[in-house]
Amino acid sequence: MNKEIVAQLLQATLSSDHTRVQAESQVQLLTREKGFSSILLEIFGDQSIDKSIRNLSIVLFKNIITNNWRRKLFEHFQLIYICRDNILFSEEEREDYRNRVLLLLNNPNETCKNGVDILAGVIGTMARVDFPSNWPNLLSNLLELFEKSSSEQIKIVSLKTIKFVVKELASRRFVIDRTFFSQFSNTIFNYFIQIWRNGIKRLIELMIEGGDLAQHESFFILVYYVSKILRRIVEYGYTDYQNSPEICQYFSDIFTGLPEILKLRTRVTNPKILELVDKFIYINQKVSINSYINSNSNNNNNNNNNNNNNNNNNNNNNNNNNNNSNNSNSNSNSNSNSSNNNNNNNNNNNNNNNNNNNNSNSNNNSNSSGKDYQSVMTQSLNFLKQVIDCSSYQGDYLDSETDEKQSISNLAIKSGAKINGNGSIQIAQQTIKQFFNKELLSELLKALVSHYLIINREEVERWEDSPEEYIQELQVNDSVYELKPSAYNLFILLMRHFHQDSVSIVVSMLEFVTSPSFNTELTSEKICLKEACYMTIGLGYHDLMDIVNFSQVFISIFVPELHSADERFKIIKRRILWLVSYWVGKIPDQYKESVVKLLLEFLKNSDIVIALTALDALKAYIDDFNFDHHSYQPYLKETLESVIGLFSRSTNETTKSNLLSALASIFVKFNECIKPFSTVILQLFQHLWNGGKEQPIVKSAVLRSFAFFLQALNSDPADFYSLLFPIIEFSISQEDEKVYLLEDGLELWYRTMVLVPTLSQPQQQPLVQMFKHWFTIIAQSLENSEICFKILDTYLLLGQIDFLKIYGAELSSTLYDIIGDLGEEYTELIVKAIMRIIQVVPNPQDSITLLIEQCLFKILSLIISRKETNTLVLIEYFSIFSRIMTMNPLSFFQLFDRYPLELLDKDGEYYDPSNFNNDNNDDDDDDDDDQSKIKEMPQNKSQLLQQFFEIYFDKIDSTSSSDQRKLIAIGLSNLLAIPREEVYPQIGEIITNVVGIRADISDITHDDIYCNDGNEVSGVQIQSDHIFQVDPLTTVDLSTYLYQKIQECSNLFGTENFQKAIVNVHPSILSLAIPSKN
After folding, report:
1. What is the CA radius of gyration of the chain?
2. How many beta carbons lie within 10 A of that of residue 767, not counting itself?
3. How far is the C-alpha of 878 from the C-alpha of 556, rounded, in Å?
4. Taking Cα atoms as reference points, which of 308, 423, 449 lies closest to residue 376?
5. Please, what sign has the CA dihedral across residues 35, 36, 42, 44?
6. 36-59 pLDDT, tens per residue?
7. DSSP 8-state code for residue 272
8. pTM of whole model > 0.70?
9. What is d(CA 741, CA 697) in angstroms, rounded to the nearest whole number?
10. C-alpha dihedral (103, 107, 113, 116), degrees to nearest 10
11. Neighbours of 877 (CB within 10 A)
């Protein structure tokens, strides 16, 4: 294997003929061979070889290094971590590779730039493992390349490499690595900060000079990568920003420089340079934002905030620069750098006069720069949000349980009233409140409305070309990366934190766009502005609810505009319908009928965007807490017809899913009233399901909507079996579909089972056969265990013995496998299933009941061996035995008689921690205490029962459920009348416990309510009610039951023996055991 052969092989992998697949397989095998990576480096360094082959060689080299360079850590049997070199690289080879990759960087004639960038990343990967211990000279070599090379390309590559190294080192998480990185950060920061300061100064000078900036492209790239390095260092290497004067000064320099660059960017005409300028602004914003997130320091929050506030809005730059000024004052209160901050303040104020002159140019440039500039603006808005809504500024007023925040304006008033209100938090509150005065809020809110919330040309084009996709975009709320959602959220926060001023500003904007003077000659621009102002009523509806008379505005202004014939008014119509969704609760009763008619009218609008918005408004109207379905009844038929009609107009899967969601809301509100439309709805479901060929999102929505449909009907779903059974089977049995259909399919399965009358009829046999999938679902994951066990309960209630004859053995095996491996949440589900089996097949000798005997043996083993120590789990396990004692106490003893003692380690011991609460903390007594807790396993059935009762009685006081406590009382009372010698020693303990339990048992209620609406009752509910009615929990009166069993016990063992058994029982307890004559 040599360089030429490998190069030919790599060339073959790039071909399009039949040799490619074979070559790729050979290369894949070679990546596991020693020496192959060395040849790849040779190929990459040979500039006579084709560039595509060289690129491929460095990509393969990167993959090999990524997968194999890191030493594998494994745990030695003595719990000492030791290192084992990967077999691909010896220490000598590692050293050789470290030298060679650095040499490859230092090539000013290198034309394979993409490959060099990949190589820089490879060096970072290697440095994560080797630096500094095995590669101490890495940083000095890279810095030497940067300093001494005459090639701009090598300088840029060295900075890229340092960036990758810093990134990889920052990702190390061991404490020793974090400590090293903190020290390393200080060194790198001190080196690059002056380069950055000189760079930003030079950048501003170049932008002022103008001219051909393209000749300085390398410089713009260099200063950009220096910023990226500093960002990683500051974000991950520092945690205590406010106590670091260097970092605070760095932030102040950012606050000073970025507003100047933003002002000057309008002079940049070269697209590539403009992109680099925007990237430089963006990365320096990230320094502030991410440092702000990682630090809870008030000083840093204030400082960072106002920088981005400065950049927030080129159309509002005048105010933003004042923001920076105020921020600097806040910083000076927290640090000793007051002189720097004040200088920063002055510098920013000097810029105020010029910013507004650049508004229009700024907008043009934002378009030419594209996504990079939008990212800058988005980050600016996000930073404003973070500062306004910062938890650190809440001080003692933040509710730690709910994280509910008070408005900054209120906090500032409270802190201003305090005598000692001069702490850093109070200063921050006061500073923010003073900065966001009414004048600034007015400019800021108006700028948000007129530049960010307003609909633009691109959105109108998307509305026309792809209306369904457009309306989905409106529902995206990615405020981190998207400009308009970020503006939405900032607007809402400003309304909440500066309520009084913001409300008056929004009201004035609304009055302005609804005034006769504004509406005299409505241009398209005015209509767009009007729509944006209307949006503010929805975004701030919570704050405006008591201020704006929505019903008056709706009737006098909105209704006429809804009926406008002007085609341009479609954006106004959609916005008004959107507002109804927010203000539905403020519609007076006398206008509700008119509103419903309007919404139904627009449901049929030819513009599907308007129709779907009307549907959202109608859904909000129906979902409203005060909705009266009786008064809406006359419109139900038209509503269903209109909604179903929208399906024929829709081609988008998400739209269909939303339409089904709207139908589900109607089903829930109208219940049995939808029965006359069942046939049409079933046909719709069949069409949308399309034999399982539709997209996943549609199929999932059909399953959910169908479940709500059955729940609303609350009757036998026999008419829908033809569709129900296939789609349930499909959703729970298709492996590739389970990711998105299983949960909804299980819910529909459960809703079906709740409503079917029986499982004994031929038409229900598909449901019986369907249960085979239950075992597969449980075996694969317990994620859906709750709904799965609810389904199991319905089968046990409906099928009972017949069902268990088919699935009893597999069910018992499944339960056995998961017992003991789960927490209390899942244990409760398993216990409930076992207890239901005992209820539906009460005969202990029945072969069906014997199926669960192995499960009971496993539970008993966990109890006796003390392998299960969770008290809540033990209480659940004991409730099973309480149920057996209650239903048939003789079978309780028979269970112990059949228990194979070999399941326990008879020669073993267990550690009994039952006396922990009584232990002293004296060290001298520890050994004796430990020895006293070591007990032997039971050697015979008598000892087995004795140990069981010890643990059983010990956990009674920890049992809080009334059902479980009554089961214990009835079960123990039943044991008194059983002629077993094991009972006699427990008589006194039984009486004492039952008397204690009986005093605090509340009324037993029927929890298994499956169908309690309407006139029809399902088979599941009938069986559940019957079991409850005959259950000893319901029929037994404990006030007399214990005394009755005491009398039986006395007769059974004889009066004399009985008296001996209760000799240690307190007389007061015995007196309480006797029922009152009243």
Report:
1. 38
2. 22
3. 70
4. 308
5. negative
6. 999 999 999 999 999 999 999 999
7. H
8. yes
9. 9
10. 10
11. 26
